[in-house]
Amino acid sequence: MTIFSKMIKSLVKQQQVKNVKPKRKKVGNTLTEGNGGNTMQDRGAIQVPSSWSLNPYFNNNYYYRWQALTLLYFTSWEARKIVQIPVQDAFRIKPKLVGVNEDERVILLNACDKYDLFNKMRRGAIQERLLGGSAILIGVAEEQDDPSVPLNIDNVDKDDLKFLNVISLNQMQKPEYCTDPFSENYDKPEYYSINGTRTHVSRMIVFDGEPLFNYSTQRLMQSFRINPQGFGESVLVPLWDSINRCIGTQQAGYQLISKASITLVKAEQLLNLEGTKMGEIAVKQLQEMAEMISIYRAAIIKGKGVEVEESGASFGSVPELLMSYLQILSAASDIPASRFLGQAPGGLNTTGDGDLENYYNAIASYQETRLDPKYEKLFDILGRSVLGKEKWLSIRPKFEIEFEPLWNLKETEKAQVDSTVVSMLRGLKNDGIIPAEKVVDEINSKKIFLTEFSTDEISDMTDFNYNNLGEAGEEADKAIGELKNVGDNPKQEAKTL
């Protein structure tokens, strides 16, 4: 065998080896590359986890990830609702400012409007849910203008607050973390670089997106697919595939509508007809006839003789399928269908009140645990700036932020609660556990009456106006009479009602 033939044989053998498709490597029951997970053809036919997919979380280019999430937010009403609805509900009613008089409350609320405080908090919360984090930069005039110096809040006085600016993720780089395990700020960012300016975190309200791991652990556990600022992930990341499948199902349903009525006109020797003048006239007549029969779409094709045929698409259970995907999104986003879709709850004897109540309780928890600390920090600076340092420090111990309940009781339920409160207060006062003054304070705090009153005014309260309490109002009448007896003579033993 010549050297040349050996070379040919070797090349053929190498080519045969190249043409052999390698076997897909299996790890337990998981394929190292998912079936279609890395292609445009993944329809979930074989349910195995994929090492990566079209979900932007699996892309290490975080600018691309932010762009993909933002694009979905602006083009998909489903994604927009998932991001916006909880934030809209949390900011639907402005929080109450407790512990200040009416004049101080008006000044603080006017300052909130001046700096657009509530709207900027809402924007920051939306960006946190969409991209995983954001921040509000607090501009304060100080002797030290270097933003890298920690903000000394004790130096803030009247008219020192200059602005509140929402800072998006792409403007924040190079976070510097506290690495001392014995510090209260351990594993929290101490500095951010905002457009190249080193800024201390005390000058910011940070929406961190609640990262599951600390910054160093993120790099290990999340395979470098982490937010470069150490923030959390978008709420759309785990819902990405479900949202796209929901959108695809709607598009497929729309395609069925376009096929709902198709008219086919079959003509014999169609090509021959088109080649003559008389034939062209005949074809034109066929086209006009097809257009009169179907206003949507029609076609003339070659066939035997002349025949008109209509075909329609079967919708079957398509509406139920569309609603099923939307309900999956509703459940996955923890937003009740009655709120997410405006859909009446299904099932016998179902009102949906339980789902809404649980959802509003979750929103209340978000307000108390996530928003309240941010409001406290903001009002500590805002109060000093609009009221002056001394006045703010005098009212700060009593100042609180309260969130109005989103789940409101019905009038009858409220009347029952108020009646129970009045009966309980009456019993505590009769037993000598609390004095009349405390009873009056408690009644005022519960807003049982339209107007607040004191113990000295009880004698003039016989014709008091109530909040349409019905039987609860009668119970309150008795309680007022009892309070009147005790108020005239605190040592007198109260009669049992």
Keywords for this structure?
497 residues, alpha+beta, 4 domains, 3-stranded antiparallel β-sheet, 46% helix, extended, disordered C terminus
Annotation field: number of helices: 16
> Biggest sheet, in brief?
3 strands, antiparallel
Oligomeric organization of the protein chains: single chain
Low-pLDDT residue spans: 20-48, 458-469, 486-497
Number of separate domains: 4
In words, what does this structure look like?
By secondary structure, the chain is of the alpha+beta class. The chain folds into four domains: 57-235, no CATH class; 240-260 and 313-332, no CATH class; 261-311, no CATH class; 411-488, no CATH class. It is built from 16 helices and 13 strands. The strands form five sheets. Strands 5-4-9 form a three-stranded antiparallel beta sheet, covered by helices on one side. Strand 1 (26-27) and strand 2 form a beta hairpin. Helix 2 (62-75) packs across helix 3 (77-90), helix 3 packs across helix 5 (117-131) and helix 14 runs antiparallel to helix 15. The model is unreliable at 20-48, 458-469 and 486-497 (pLDDT under 50).
